[in-house]
Design goal:
The complex is a heterotrimer of chains A (about 250), B (about 350) and C (about 290).
Chain A lengths: L8 E10 L2 E11 L3 E6 L6 H8 L7 E6 L2 E2 L5 H6 L2 E4 L11 H13 L13 H14 L14 H14 L4 E5 L7 H15 L3 E5 L3 H7 L2 E6 L2 E6 L1 H6 L1 H11 L1
Parallel strand pairs in A: 3-8, 3-9, 6-7, 7-8
Antiparallel strand pairs in A: 1-2, 1-4, 4-5, 9-10
Chain B lengths: L4 H20 L2 H27 L6 H15 L8 H23 L4 H21 L9 E2 L5 E3 L2 E3 L6 H25 L1 H19 L3 H27 L1 E2 L6 H14 L6 H13 L1 H7 L1 H9 L3 H12 L1 H15 L30
Antiparallel strand pairs in B: 1-4, 2-3
Chain C lengths: L2 H32 L6 H19 L5 H19 L9 H23 L15 E5 L2 E4 H23 L1 H11 L3 H4 L4 H27 L5 H16 L4 H21 L1 H18 L10
Helix pairs in contact in C: 1-5, 1-6, 1-8, 1-9, 1-10, 2-3, 2-4, 2-8, 2-9, 3-8, 5-6, 5-8, 9-10, 9-11, 10-11
The chains are: A alpha/beta (about 250), B mainly alpha (about 350), C mainly alpha (about 290).
Chain lengths: ~250, ~350, ~290
Amino acid sequence: MKADAAPVLETTALSKSFGGLSAVRDVSIALNRGELHAVIGPNGAGKSTLVNLLSGELRPTSGEIRLDGRPVTDTSAPHMAQAGVARSFQRTNIFPPLSILENVRLAVQAIHTPMRGLLRPHSAARDLDTRAAAVLERVGLGEAPHRMAGTLSHGEQRLIEIAMTLAGNPRVLLLDEPLAGMGNEESEAMARLLKDLARDHAVLLIEHDMDFVFSVADRMTVMVEGALMASGPPEAIRADAAVQRTYLGAAS
Amino acid sequence: MLPTTRGAFALAAGAVVLALLPFMAQVYYVELATTALVAAMLALSLQLLVGCTGLVSLGHGAFYGLAAYTVYLVTPEDAGLSIMITLPLAVLAAGAAALFVGALSLRTRGFFFLMVTLAFGQMIFFIFHDTKLGGGTDGAYLARPALSLLGFELTYTRRQRPVFLYYVALVQLVAMYLFLAFLLRSLFGRVLEGIRINEHRMRALGYDTYRYKLAAFVIGGALAGVAGHMWAMHRAFVNPEIIGWHRSAEALLMILLGGLQSLHGPILGALAFTGLGELPQLVGDAKPFARFFSAIGLADFGLRVQALAERKLLLEGLVILAVVLVLPRGLAGLRWPRFIRPAFGGRPAGNERVQP
Amino acid sequence: MSFAGFLAQLLNGVQYGLLLFLIASGLTLIFGVMGIINLAHGSLFMVGAYVAFLTTRAVGSAWLALPLALIGGAVFGALLERGLFRHFYRRDHLDQVLLTFALILLFEETRSILVGNDFYSVPVPAAFDFSVPITAGFSYSAYRFAVIAICLALAVVLFLWIERTRMGAIIRAAAEKPEMVDVIGIDARRVHMTVFAVGTALALTAGALAAPLYSVYPGMGDGFLIISFVVVVIGGLGSISGAFWSALLIGLVDTLGKAYVPAVAGLAIYVLMAGVLIWRPTGLFGQRG
């Protein structure tokens, strides 16, 4: 994929420590539109913390985050989402008692409803339905959208997670292990979806499945113990001796 | 939260029964029913927070009491003002207090939220308990608001008064139910539901949940003000007890009793709770009860049971224990006979209570 | 007011604050470890006060009340945990609130059945019924000094228990990370029961100490419960040292306020709480909200 010149979301020397323990150290990373940027690393490397920092869920201890060149370092999670930075969660984080459609409608409504429209009866909000149905179609959940989310298979719940992330029409997608616990067939569908999404979004992907990552990533970053170890195109990462030694070697 | 079509018919039938009650019951029971309707309004206004949004507040009774005191404070000593003046003022006062308390307490969650709402509620209690503002600890009598609109006044004799006040309360309760039903059907209601189920996800989706919760808190507080205003109108008396946090806890009990899953639950819970409060009276007055125990040679025991039944707190405490231990889903969790069951609860699976 | 008078109020404030600490520390420990909200904690304080009243009436002196409250409280707390609270750890807040509210009503009604609804004063134990001269013109109640000393001694024991023992380490871990409770596995039941027993014993002891100072009366637990909530909110959750400093702060603000600006003193602690909520919603000394 060809990336545009200016990064959409960018960090400089981002750090986060809990008590005395530093979870993320001096991470500088840039996400470009049209690019799928995969972050890999062993468990506890600070990948999820990085996503939490980028999505506004955690405040960094130091460093800066910029969205379209403007500083957004201390912006809260809802405001980051409103600004077009959407995330999915490693552990499925949906509304189990609601139907598939209602889950996604909530996500659509978050971004597309002005205050004065809030008192409309929800059954009359056809625009939200249309948009939600379109998103569900895109992730392959278009059939039987009135089933209750909590009763679905794990894979389908993961798809709801992705659909909610897409629903607000974001520019940046932060996907925290979207494949976790998915079967082979589902993984392949997800790979196609991710490639498709990377065309018009800036995507940050955290993933453990190396074959999968190397097959979809345009750019990769390796994190170890909270810090960046290497960053570059997949071929360069594969060839990097240090990464080989400490991570890829150990994984295979 | 909202009833199915059949449920709506059942509710409408219930409202009709309530409307016919004054034609069937003695004055004492009409007045008791008015008390129950006021309690129902309080519990219903709290349901917006507890059942809909998942916020358990122990400061709700304070807004209710504050509204009643507002009626006292604005009413001249000798003549009642128009309800068109007292009601908006009472609602405004309750809503403003809810805005202040909510803005601060919603900065916290869970256990802290409970403690902070309780403490601020108690602050309002102390203002009226420890100062002479509203008659101090003894409370004060007030002139009832008049049913007048634009110079046209609805008058009633002293004998007709219980029935008139009953209908005023009933109309307000029905209006409040319809208003909340409208609110919950709207997109705003969907957001509150989302917050109850998974607030964390709502924030990640882009909802500034603090604002929505504050809006719910203020609306709930203002509606508690409607209930408090009706209390003042019904009893023509205020004392600090109506502000105390025990009132909030009782309202929570009514909600649990009637069921968290529905909007009409709190109304049923309030009616049941008020009815239970009458139990000692019934046991105490029941001649057959006394006769039964004298007949089996236990007159003394019978008297003791009656004396024990007079202890309202004991009864209330045991009822709560029973509900919490045996009926964690309230009366709605009882297994109804098949032919009535469909009338209760909206969507059976969609309203699971969510662990905090 | 004179300097001596100020000193007396200062000591009163410290003494009140230390009593609040005994109540609030139990509250925050019980919540920190078990995640349960005990509204009846104020009633336990009341039970302690009535234990002091009844012992004094029965044996003529209050010397027995303290060990009775401490040991009886621990046993009572353990029984409550076993019989009732254990089943509510995983229930939601509403159930916990109503359960403990029911306990308040039952405690109050039991008190009413046993001793009626009158106010009773409790005599100061004879051994401490004198004043300690501080300066030429100023002396201070020996009993209040004794209360301060006993509270401080209990606070030190509590700190050592939390900081130096294995169970203390588990308690700290559980208060910081609730998930830890699952990790400790087999020990959990014992830890829960111990924490509940300690919290209850502290509340009863505070009540027994307070009885000669404030007399005993219906509903006396309510006021102390709510002030203790303010202490916990200001101190921050699960932090014993936070509860300690915040209890002293509240004790001083409330006591000095009532002495010097009585008109607005009742509101002072709430204003303080509002300020903390605006400035640091997780409490002055707390780790998490």
